[in-house]
Amino acid sequence: MRNRPTGSQIRVASPVRALAQRFSFLLLVLAAIAMMMVGKVDTLLVEGLRTRATDAVVPILDALSRPVATATGVLDRVGELADLRADNERLRLENARLMQWQQAALRLDAENRSLRALLNYKPDPAATFVTARVVADPGGTFVRSVIVTAGRRDGVRKGQAALAGHGVIGRVVEVGEWSARVLLLTDLNARVPVVLEATRHRAVLSGDNTDQPRLIHLPPDASVAIGERVVTSGSGGLLPAGLPVGIVASVGDQTVKVEPMVDLDRLEHVQIVDYGLAWPLTEGGTRAGELP
Amino acid sequence: MTVGVWHRLDQAGRGLTPITVTVLLVLVGMIPVQVPFYGPATPAFGLAAVYYWAIHRPDLLRPAFAFAVGVMNDLLSGLPLGLTALTYILVYWVVLTQRRFFLGHSFLLLWWGFALVAFGAAVLAWLVFSILSFSIRPMSTVLFQSVMTTALFPVLAWLFIRIHRVFLQRS
Question: Are the CB atoms for A51 and A174 separated by under 8 Å?
Answer without folding.
Answer: yes
